[in-house]
Write a structure and sequence with these properties.
Elements: H1 16-30, H2 41-48, H3 52-64, E1 68-71, E2 75-78, H4 83-107, H5 110-129, H6 132-149, H7 153-161, H8 163-174, H9 180-196, H10 199-230
Antiparallel strand pairs: 1-2
Helix pairs in contact: 1-3, 2-3, 4-6, 4-9, 4-10, 5-6, 5-9, 6-8, 8-10, 9-10
Length: about 230
């Protein structure tokens, strides 16, 4: 773990426990805190310059989100990325985003089109930098713009509720630079499908987009499992 990357960014509008929670969650989502890594309260408190109380509260919230697991006689650990969790999350994401893009094909407004075009530009600009964090953030904004264009408030809420869990897998996928051209191509096809109002093409590319993500991460999980077994 790189000691200089995980730090608290104070926010005068948020309680300290929420700031610590966001800091630790960001560390997990970006891989700064590795799967299986123990989260020791004293160590984290010293590292972040806070007391143990907000650390304890943050770990409790992270456990509720599924990002941390409690191990008997060991304490808190960063949750591993498992095949089951990956499949569960991406199955739900695929269902929700397929519905969202089909509705967007029917309901997109001129304002939505402008916003979606802007988000696509941001994804492509981020891709040129090669910065995985920037690409992931732009990717989230692009997909959120599609959901917004669906005009369905409840659907927007459901996608938002799943957002943090989806982000972990999204970031894991985007870290592989060899996948960037494919990701960019799929985004452009999504955009064009919506403009054309082609629901079949749009739903198909969303399925392909998420299937590719699942397959790539699954290969990585199996590779890491094989390496662990050989060690």
């Amino acid at each position: 773990m790189k000691e200089d990357n995980l730090h608290v960014s104070m926010d005068e509008f948020l309680p300290l426990r929420d700031v610590v929670f966001k800091t630790l969650r960001r560390g997990i989502l970006t891989g700064e805190l590795k799967p299986g890594e123990r989260l020791m309260e004293i160590h984290l408190a010293n590292r972040l310059g806070v007391s143990r109380t907000p650390i304890r509260e943050a770990i409790r919230k992270l456990e509720l989100e599924g990002l941390v697991t409690m191990i008997p006689r060991r304490g808190a650990e960063v949750a591993n990325i498992t095949e089951k969790n990956l499949k569960d999350v991406l199955e739900v994401r695929q269902a929700l985003e397929s519905l969202a893009i089909e509705l967007a094909c029917e309901r997109i407004t001129p304002e939505n089109k402008e916003a979606l075009r802007e988000k696509l530009n941001q994804v492509e600009e981020a891709a040129r930098t090669g910065d995985s964090s920037a690409i992931a953030s732009a990717d989230v904004a692009f997909h959120d713009a599609i959901v917004e264009a669906s005009g369905n408030v409840r659907l927007t809420q459901l996608v938002s509720n799943l957002g943090e869990q989806m982000y972990r897998y999204r970031f894991e996928y985007i870290k592989d630079e060899s996948k960037h051209p494919q990701i960019m191509s799929e985004h452009r096809i999504m955009y064009e499908s919506i403009l054309e109002g082609d629901k079949v093409k749009a739903a198909r590319i969303v399925k392909t987009h998420i299937d590719n993500q699942e397959e790539a991460i699954m290969r990585k999980i199996k590779k890491e499992q094989a390496a662990a077994n050989d060690a």
